From TrEMBL:
Keyword Lyase assigned: no
Domain of life: Bacteria
EC number: 1.14.13.83
Domain Nitrite/Sulfite reductase ferredoxin-like as annotated: residue spans: 26-70
Gene Ontology terms for molecular function: 4 iron, 4 sulfur cluster binding; metal ion binding; precorrin-3B synthase activity
Protein's recorded name: Precorrin-3B synthase
Annotated keywords: 4Fe-4S, Heme, Iron, Iron-sulfur, Metal-binding, Oxidoreductase
Keyword field contains 4Fe-4S: yes
Length: 347
């Protein structure tokens, strides 16, 4: 059944249209497939240090947010020079998930270049600039990681040559070859612009329900061996917040939709937790006070206090209000400020 129509405007932030938070302006920088080159990482780190709060905040869509910005006018030229704003009219709709380990280890196909192709195809269609800022594309290389994130439109490899088209995480039954994945996703996005009405997401439409394909967990924290024999590592910054100096030291990275970071080469990961058994690894939180005026508590301070006694396998999210920003898709303990469970503060 369709969800009630949206009655307020889509105010999803970007770089050209920032959000005024309690701690200053907030800009969301889209990273297709979560990929960030070493040179782009240096530019983002400098922006965080010189214009913002000194940190990079990871999002559940593999993007990065800059907070506490005081001179937003300087942000656009810096990010443009780094190639992070290739299509200004489409800036807010460049939301693409891709299997973070694709082309490094595992998977049925390598979707890295396909993400870039999809980005070019979306930005070439003026109609798609009108998509809501929350609309989400996904390319799953067959391992079932990002297809479980309920993207609006997703292509998931079933073998080395063919994949399934999913809408809102459900299989449509449509099968498309790998070289037709981009065309299929663009067609579905165009269809959504024609039928959406006031809907922001495909799941808000009254569509027949399809089955869900088996999903797999996200990239596990810890070192991994690439298919070419070289070493890489996945690590998680505490509460998804990475210091600018650490980002600069990491160089080339892939930001995952689970607020972790894949370092494709090497195992040196400053600012990242790389021990899969580290206490509190499954604890997350919204920004809380003082960054958000709607929050009823400094949820990050409270989350940090609980992390020390929370086993790694426990998934818990702290929210300052009923919006529950940044909550994970998977099952988790809901710690909402102002409730009895939150006051107890126990895993």
């Amino acid at each position: 059944m369709a969800l009630p129509a949206r009655v307020r405007a889509d105010a999803c932030p970007g770089v050209f249209a920032t959000h005024d938070a309690a701690d200053g302006a907030l800009a969301r920088v889209r990273l297709p497939g979560g990929r960030l080159s070493a040179s782009q990482a240096r530019v983002l780190a400098s922006c965080a240090e010189e214009l913002g709060d000194g940190s990079l905040h990871l999002t559940s869509r593999g993007n990065i947010q800059l907070r506490g910005l005081s001179r937003t006018g300087e942000l656009v030229p810096r990010l443009s020079s780094a190639g992070l704003l290739p299509a200004p009219p489409h800036e807010r709709v460049r939301n693409y998930l891709a299997s973070p380990l694709s082309g490094l280890t595992g998977g049925l196909v390598d979707v890295r270049e396909t993400v870039a192709e999809l980005d070019r195809a979306v930005c070439a269609r003026p109609e798609l600039a009108g998509l809501p800022g929350r609309f989400l594309f996904a390319l799953d290389d067959g391992r079932g990681d990002v297809s479980g994130e309920d993207a609006d439109v997703c292509w998931r490899a079933l073998d080395s040559s063919t994949g399934a088209v999913l809408l809102a995480g459900r299989d449509t039954g449509e099968r498309v070859p790998f070289d037709g994945a981009v065309g299929a996703l663009v067609r579905k996005a165009l269809w959504f612009t024609e039928v959406r009405g006031s809907a922001w997401r495909v799941r808000e439409l009254d569509l027949p329900g399809g089955s869900r394909l088996p999903a797999s967990p996200g990239v596990p924290v810890g070192p991994f061996t690439r298919d070419d024999g070289r070493a890489g590592v996945c690590g998680a910054p505490v509460l998804g917040q990475l210091a600018a100096a650490d980002l600069r030291a990491l160089g080339e990275i892939v930001v995952t939709p689970w607020r972790s970071v894949v370092v494709p080469l090497g195992v040196h990961a400053p600012g990242l937790v790389t021990d899969p058994d580290a206490p509190g690894l499954g604890v997350s939180a919204c920004i809380g006070r003082p960054g958000c005026a709607k929050s009823r508590a400094d949820v990050r301070a409270d989350a940090r206090a609980v992390m020390r006694r929370t086993p790694a396998g426990v998934r818990m999210h702290f929210s300052g209000c009923e919006r529950r920003c940044g909550r994970p898709h998977e099952a988790h303990i809901d710690m909402l400020a102002g409730t009895e469970e939150y006051q107890k503060g126990t895993p």
